[in-house]
Structure formats: structure tokens, C-alpha cells
Amino acid sequence: MIIGYTSGVYDLFHVGHVNLLRNAKAMCDKLVVGVTIDELVAYKGKEPVIPYHERIEVVRSCKYVDVAIPQQNMDKAAAAKKNHASYLFVGDDWYETEKWKEHEIELERVGCKVIYFPYTQGTSSTLINSTLNHLRG
What is the pTM of this model? Predict the structure, then answer.
């Protein structure tokens, strides 16, 4: 069985999230999705619009997701190892960044390959939130 793993905040769930999850599920038998807990989102100096317990239920309800679990830290290799993932899926906006070059090395050590999918242009939770704030004045 091929197990895949991906993670994210999944705040203001949008078509970019669906695209990533659809593409990921097409490459594995079981897709495990880590949903970032609210406390970890704060490390970016952000606060999610939708609370964690609601975000994980939205992700869980997506037909491409087999298992949704809390993401409590940023240790990608530990998550891949714990979930026996052969692949870790991420958007290509992270491709060739210093952070993800390090993640690739760490993931390779635990037998997990990083697969980059095309980032969905024109949509993001940040853009949606910004647009809503602008519309509200």
C-alpha cells in the first residue's frame, strides 16, 4: 500500500486545496492529511479565520482524504515516518526554497520522497481573507 502525506492550515478551504488533495490521492492508496493546530499557526504571526476543530472537519469531509490528523509541529520527516508515508505532497511554490531543500534531505533519510504539485494561481486563503476585509471596508 502506498501512503501519502500532506499538511497545511486549510483555512478558508478553496479550490487550490482541492487540487492538491485530488492530485495527491491520485498518487497513493491512502492519503493522510495533517491539519495545523491553531497554536502552530501562530508561529507565522497569523490567526486562522476558521478554528482548528472546524478546519479538520472540512478536510475530513473531502472525498480525497482518507485520514485527517492534527499537525502539532513542523517536523515533516517525523510525520512521514510516523504515518509510513512514501510520498509527501506540497505545492511547487516551495520548490527549491532553502527550507524545502532541507526537508527533502530529512525526508529522504526516512524513505519519503517529496512530490511538488503546481500551485493553483489566483487563489489562496490569504487572498480570500484580504478580499473579504476590503469588501467589509
Answer: 0.87
